[in-house]
């Protein structure tokens, strides 16, 4: 069973999500919260597998709640899937930086939402990676990279192959597509990515993508 914590300040939206999850095979509602502070408390108490997190809420936002939940969680930490009204939303970008596993538009249908929960639970930290790439590019393009050319101290700890995998993933390629490009197995790509995340102290694939852009390893609008 995938245990899901539902967080949304709108009662009707939250109730609809809870009803959908309760009716879905293999899903269990761990709890529901109406704001970020309540979400942090319930996440620590119920230890869900996945948190469906509204991003814009009064009081503690979904960004701060995401950061707090992941910082305080015992292993394994929950996967956090952001719910948003707009796909190009600086709040979502902040949540990805904070460690959220991905995001989903609130107008997505029931099947897509359930598929997204299953995907992040299974380790697919980016649901719709091309859309996430577009989001990251939109906001990192506003500022100069911290270390042009990807020469930050953290990235220098990576092997050549790990850098290659990170660059392709940041460009929106799936593990299978990156494997085809590099002539290696999909399992090897996943291994390289996991090692990269461990070396860089990242909690999600989305954070790895953000870091690749902010460090200058990948440039917005480039061809990869």
TrEMBL record:
The HTH luxR-type domain sits at 151-216
SMART domains from the UniProt entry: HTH_LUXR, REC
Which residues are recorded as modified (4-aspartylphosphate)? 54
Query: Keywords assigned by UniProt?
Result: DNA-binding, Phosphoprotein, Transcription, Transcription regulation
SUPFAM superfamilies noted in UniProt: CheY-like
Presence of keyword Transcription: yes
Task: State the name under which the record lists this protein.
Answer: Response regulator
Native species of this protein? Streptomyces anandii
Q: What is the lineage of its organism?
A: Bacteria, Bacillati, Actinomycetota, Actinomycetes, Kitasatosporales
